[in-house]
Amino acid sequence: MRIAIITGASSGLGREYARQLHAAFPEIEQVWLIARRRPLLDELGNELGIQSLSFPLDLSNDKDIESLARRLDEERPQVELLVNCAGCGYLSDVADTDSELLSRMVDLNIRALTLVTRAVLPYIMKGGHIINVSSIASFCPNARMTVYSSTKAYVSSFSLGLREEVRDRKISVTAICSGPMATEFLEIGGISGNSDMFKSLPYCKPQAVAAGSYAAAKRDAAFYTPKIFFKLYRVLSKIIPHSILVKFVKT
Ligand SMILES: NC(=O)c1ccc[n+]([C@@H]2O[C@H](COP(=O)([O-])OP(=O)(O)OC[C@H]3O[C@@H](n4cnc5c(N)ncnc54)[C@H](OP(=O)(O)O)[C@@H]3O)[C@@H](O)[C@H]2O)c1
User: Fold this and answer.
1) What residue ranges in the chain does DSSP mark as E strands?
2) For residue 83, which of 130, 40, 126, 23 has the smallest C-alpha distance?
3) Which residues are catalytic?
4) Is the dihedral of CA 85, 87, 89, 95 positive or negative?
5) Distance 186 CA to ligand 1 centre (A)
6) Shortest-distance Cα residue to atom 47 of ligand 1
7) How far does residue 6's CA lie from ligand 1's centre (Å)?
8) Measured in angstroms, how far is the CA atom of residue 12 from the centroid of ligand 1?
9) Helix (H) or strand (E) holding 116
10) Does any ligand 1 atom lie closer than 6 A to the CB of residue 183?
11) Measured between alpha carbons, how far is 34 from 164 in angstroms, rounded to an integer?
12) CATH numbers and ranges of domains, the chain
């Protein structure tokens, strides 16, 4: 059976990836929806028009990732699409942030993304796709979101390296570098109302980011950055030394 696996599917961008899945990949017969809140996954599954399975997993917990790996080993599905979308980011200086929140960002954005990818990789079919949700925060460190931006630099770097490793298997790997989106992320991260930078930036719509991501994966793009404004920022971040740019991109 051909399946898709989407992490962070219970809200925001991940939910949008699930909603657009059938239109973008009609050949996929089943989707595995992963996040902690089961009722939201079940509700989403009922509206998708394809078979869906809810996996209420806490991906910051190794045991939960191992249970996903075991399920894959039992079912041995043909995975056409893996979307690593689960992520979190908290606004505040490192010295003012609880260690638990710092760990949560590293565990979910780096460790879980890496281990989920490792668990799924043996089952990704020739011609399949991996979409890793990074951020414009990966372009240059953002003070006050130093750990978050560093985790997303990892996601972009990991994606590019993995892309070379799986090229011979004809698997595409695409890192998605979106600007801000009005999702739960902003409230959970304490960003809403507390960041002049977030107030001044143009916002991306999750619907458009999901659609653009799928198109980018199909054309085997290494990166997808929505909006001209953020494409320009990406170019500038390659030209201007980060030791200078970092002073102007504080969140
Ligand atoms: N919103 C933005 O401004 C923005 C900009 C650029 C990039 N991004 C990236 O976009 C991705 C999606 O974020 P979003 O904006 O859609 O935010 P969101 O609505 O908060 O979605 C985050 C998703 O991750 C899941 N999640 C959180 N902790 C988890 C855990 N421990 N285990 C399993 N799942 C977990 C959440 O579900 P549960 O709570 O049910 O577990 C939710 O489905 C993230 O990687 C984020 O870094 C966001």
Assistant:
1) 2-7, 30-35, 51-56, 78-84, 124-133, 172-176, 223-224
2) 130
3) 148
4) negative
5) 10
6) 87
7) 11
8) 7
9) helix 113-120
10) yes
11) 27
12) 2-245 (3.40.50.720)
Query: What is the DSSP-derived secondary structure letter of residue 174?
Result: E
How confident is the prediction along the chain (251 residues), in pLDDT tens digits per residue?
Answer: 999 999 999 999 999 999 999 999 999 999 999 999 999 999 999 999 999 999 999 999 999 999 999 999 999 999 999 999 999 999 999 999 999 999 999 999 999 999 999 999 999 999 999 999 999 999 999 999 999 999 999 999 999 999 999 999 999 999 999 999 999 999 999 999 999 999 999 999 999 999 999 999 999 999 999 999 999 999 999 999 999 999 999 99
Residue minimizing CA distance to atom 3 of ligand 1: 180
| The token pair that represents 192 in the structure block | 């809403």
Q: What is the pTM of this model?
A: 0.98
Cα–Cα dist 74/3, whole Å: 14
